Amino acid sequence: MAAHAVSPLTGGLLRRGVAFHHRRRLLAVAAVAPEVPAPTPAPSQPPPSPAPPRKGYFPKRGETIELTCEALAFKGKGVCKVAGSTFVLLCDGALPGERLVARVRRLRRGAFAEAAKLKTLEPHHDAVEAPCPLAADCGGCKTQSLAYAAQIRHKHDQVRDLLVNFGKFDPRRMESSEPDAILKSIVPCDEIFRYRNKMEFSFGTKRWMQREWKEKEEEVVKEETNEADGYALGLHAPGFFDKVLHVEKCFLQSEPADKVLAVVQETWMDPALGLTPYDVHKHVGFLKHLMIRTGRNVSTGTPEVMVNFVTSCYKPVLLMPLVDNITKIPEVVSVINNVNTSVGNTSVGEQEYTLYGKPNITEMLRGLTFQISANSFFQTNTKQADVLYKLIEDSAGLKGDGSEIVLDLFCGTGTIGLTLARRAKHVYGYEVVPEAIADARKNAKLNGINNATFVEGDLNKINESFGKEFPKPDIIISGLHWFIYCYCSFAHKFNYLLTADNCFDPNRPGMHMKLIKWLLEVEAPRIVYVSCNPATCARDLDYLCHGVEEKDLRGCYELKSVIPVDMFPHTPHIECVCLLELH
Question: Is Magnesium one of the keywords UniProt gives this record (predicted)?
Fold first, then answer.
């Protein structure tokens, strides 16, 4: 792609050497999708007449058009086109092979457009029935109706396209079937439902109703009533901070957590209890959020559930009927009340009270024990995190003789560094979030690990003195994970609203150019780059391997392997474990 070119699938200028984080916010970056031929019609049906070419077609805002989805872009939007045209429209909820009616919402610099799906005319390829009736409206499981094998195939293809188009790597080495292939086969998730150990639901005064569409004089129009006043407990409708989709059951969380949700739903709306949801417009009401976390008893291996009520003030008497009911569930071992008096919509309280049981639950990861409090940072898919961390350990290739120094950048709560500490001489971890650093130190002490040092620091603001406080590292782990910032840097500091759509993956801008420069200067023998954003990952790998001409930086690494890992089935999010070795 030429410098300063506008990509129809990135929504912005792609300049080699110009970091994305200099912008006000990171625009959604999509994989450059290859041209996909139209699906061959079934033998029993005559092929449709081809539509006449529409050269120079340019949609108008508000126009209702018929589209065909050809591919999935990164972040899960469908890459759609009008028959006979090459103009790209990105449509949320559209899946490959689907023929649909959509309405044009935004035009992006004349290069592409965004459209809202109105109606499906023909189903997509690899269609399956979504088990959740709210899947189309919730936003948390965008691809439930797409067969899982197809989901991971599209994710693998997206990583490949990004490495080729943004990373400038040889496409011949991106085929997993080749013996010297850099890109390995994607690692699927064994459990595609009930994999989240934490879910956060919101109480609201405006219940969002499921979408209903009708046809009138050949025009697709939206039903006039999309929302209704009424209390709700569930997930925020995508794009709305004040409207809540009422959820009775969630297929992402554990079954004991679902039991808790059901009991709360049966109880909290009883007028006799006097419980009211918080109104984000009037700033009145009591109940703000319901957070449910699932861990494991280290001794027995049985589930442990923590229930956290986030309220606008401390009135434990009002919560006791709920507490009495949910503690009848055997797995519930902790009930917490976080009090958040601010007008913001965050779940982190200024004060925390234990209403029942113990203040923490426990979880095991790679043989280590972690204590999890109501606001602790922890990987939300424990079983797949175990798989991910094993891949990181294998990629790091520690000798195991206790002679090597490991530098863990963006270390979060130290989970990766602590799993490597057993085979390293010393681990140094850096993280900007003070609460995460506090958890990392606590986790090290809990597991009796004395060769790990965790330092609070902003890696986007390093200076000439960075690196002088520790020995030259043999292995650098750069773990740009979503969970590090999910509940503190975004939610707590900036009143960032977590919805079903973004609770998996807030935008991560990748490495700052100052850090790229330092990595190229320090020349550690190996770097394991772990990223939840394949687009910025591909860009950073390009810088580290090929250099940055505009900054007069020479690349000094060779990309040895990239392993995509599916951490969150039915979502567009992808984790990648990349190994770089010094030339």
Answer: no
